[in-house]
Amino acid sequence: MAKSRLKFALFGNEYQVKKSASIQKILSYLKLKRAEIYVDKTFYDFLINNQKIDVEADGVFEGYNFDVDYVISMGGDGTFLKAASRVGAKGIPVIGVNMGRLGFLADVLPSEIEEALDAIFTKNYRVEEHTAIQIEADGEPIEGNPFALNDIAVLKRDNASMITIKAVVNGDFLVNYQADGLVICTPTGSTAYNLSNGGPIIVPQSGSLCLTPVAPHSLNIRPIVINDDSVIELNVESRSHNFLVAVDGRSQKLVEGTKLTIRKAPYTIKIVKTCSRRYFSTLREKLMWGADQRQ
């Protein structure tokens, strides 16, 4: 019986025009391994028309219309989040190649591409399952994908006035946040917007979510970590009578009085990690822990 060919779906950042060498390296490697290559149409058009790369793909897809063994995200963490939102409940493992800057999710460096792909073909890797969260809006539908791998943020809009967010957890009143907003993050997203607002770093697979206020009016209001099986209900009051909801950065305006419910998604996002890559080493590297900045 002939050995089946591995299938890969490729997503990329069409704004990174100087990364063609890394993209060509991936395409050449997969072709050498006789893998089937399917490319997101937006990225495919960018490679063909802008980068002038001859992409020998087995197919081009749009939206959620792909069925493969692995997904490769070529870009930064933003590109990874977009790819993960398209994967959704498919359960396809995602490999993140870092062509951006910081790269917590996309942690494979361009110099490590062949090593990482070797690990796939030799099955010398591990898969981490990362919690996703979802949002529901009572009275006004959430446009697009309501699921987030990193975070869901409720934010003020239009003017300098803060908003008031009434938060209820598992039916119990928590607090009225008076702030510029509120970030609800997963452990995966704890090193993103949550961290920049003073929230804690949460180790993946810890079974936690974090609520972190954005510029709270009271210094006594601090981030709080809760179990990830909790149900969070939010009601927002605003002088402008509307506010923003950002789901992994995809923002939408909602009207005051819309009740929001946030809970754990019914699926996880599977992320491929090489055996040499460990979470704490990534923290030390990306956040420069222990580095002496003195000249």
From TrEMBL:
Q: Where is the active site?
A: D77
ATP-binding listed as a keyword: yes
Q: Main subcellular localization, coarse class?
A: cytoplasm
Q: Which GO terms describe its biological process?
A: NAD+ metabolic process; NADP+ biosynthetic process
Instruction: State its cofactor.
Output: a divalent metal cation
Keywords attached to this entry: ATP-binding, Cytoplasm, Kinase, NAD, NADP, Nucleotide-binding, Transferase
What is the protein's known function? Involved in the regulation of the intracellular balance of NAD and NADP, and is a key enzyme in the biosynthesis of NADP. Catalyzes specifically the phosphorylation on 2'-hydroxyl of the adenosine moiety of NAD to yield NADP.
Please give the family membership noted in the entry: Belongs to the NAD kinase family.
Q: What is this protein called?
A: NAD kinase
Biological source species:
Segatella baroniae B14
